[in-house]
Design goal:
2 copies of one chain form a homodimer.
Chain A: H1 10-19, E1 22-27, E2 32-33, E3 41-47, E4 49-55, E5 61-68, E6 72-74, E7 85-89, E8 93-99, H2 100-105, H3 112-139, H4 144-159, E9 163-165, H5 170-176, H6 181-193, E10 197-200, E11 203-206
The first copy, chain A, binds a DNA duplex through helix 6.
Amino acid sequence: MERLFYQISENEKEKLFRFLETNILTFPKNTIMLSNTKDKIIGIILKGYVQIIRTDYQGNRTIIEELEEGDIFGTILSSLDSDECEAITKENTKVLIIDYNSILSYQNTKYKYYNQFIKNLLEITTSKIEEKNERIEILTKKTIRDKLLEYFNIYAKKHGSKIIYLPFSYTNLADYIAVDRSAMSRELSYLKEEGFIETKGRKITLLYK
Amino acid sequence: MERLFYQISENEKEKLFRFLETNILTFPKNTIMLSNTKDKIIGIILKGYVQIIRTDYQGNRTIIEELEEGDIFGTILSSLDSDECEAITKENTKVLIIDYNSILSYQNTKYKYYNQFIKNLLEITTSKIEEKNERIEILTKKTIRDKLLEYFNIYAKKHGSKIIYLPFSYTNLADYIAVDRSAMSRELSYLKEEGFIETKGRKITLLYK
DNA sequence: TCCAAAAAGTTGCAATTGCAACAAAATATT
DNA sequence: AATATTTTGTTGCAATTGCAACTTTTTGGA
């Protein structure tokens, strides 16, 4: 939210909404959020909590994304478009929907903040690409050990520190690096035994290099 | 190239280059293309052929991207930024470099084609996200068989056909889905035996569903 | 504070995979 | 057309992993 309207005041934001095709929708807890149109949209969670769940052809369900207040989603940002995905509200949720085509077809460029908005959108999309590249870098590693180390290295470089505070549970980490949780747990034990890392809860300390 | 300057004529393109901070660089065959600045850039291959190669901490080298005439790359689009990456020209190569900050800091929005340019850039970045999502969908599958089937399904859906013409070699497919080539070859044999697919060279026919 | 639920750790075992080392086939190159 | 190079197919074997089943620990409500 903040990023999408970076350097745009509340006032200007309201104006922007009038230029663009926007909609505010409210969904009760545990509803399936469906886009009524087939158009591309950008959604912003104004309030609430949503899970994006994918069911594959074998019936396996996985949470592929979790969205909180301020998070941005949509046909162009996530894989919401694929038929196998559902967005389910886990709380009362209020969502702002912006029609993507109305962003791109908007011709009246005299309105200054329109450009700022587009720039912000561009920043968000490029940082999404970076995120995806990081995950791909991890997923292409062949062993669980190498996946973990790649994850650690990326985190450490980004934060400039050898101490990692996992932003989610180990269960979620296993999903993120796409390996079996118990097998990952085993590998973490080996890494500890061999003196590469130390852990205390979700705090991991890298002892190598 | 076409996409970045979609609906922008050659004339307007030239004008645009004068507004933005652009540079045309030429590299001989087998040179390492280095960005002299640390700034974010967008590059466009005007002529030639480039490979982006990553060397990880174990010394394994993998081609992570191949760029031809018209392709767009850059700090914001690929993982060129990471230290482990090199871009090596495989032919005489001419590259147009656009400073990313000059795109975003450009204030004079009176110039109509500037907006078209930004919109095109946005289209390119969002379609990159889609590409990455597809690959992640494949990479998160646990077995080689499931990875292959996911690849086939995505392709088939996109082309609306049960006949697949691999856009690259089986060796490259193995890299793309991040498995051992010979193990993939074995799995393809099983799929043939079991009557799920038929292959003739790089043409694969899906016999299921 | 107690209880239920979720998360995390452990381990045996079978299935899958990577690796290595080839041979055969297809492509490029001279 | 002959040769070199790359791609593809095959297979044995050891290493890695997923799966299942279970225990222990942690977390979050009532």
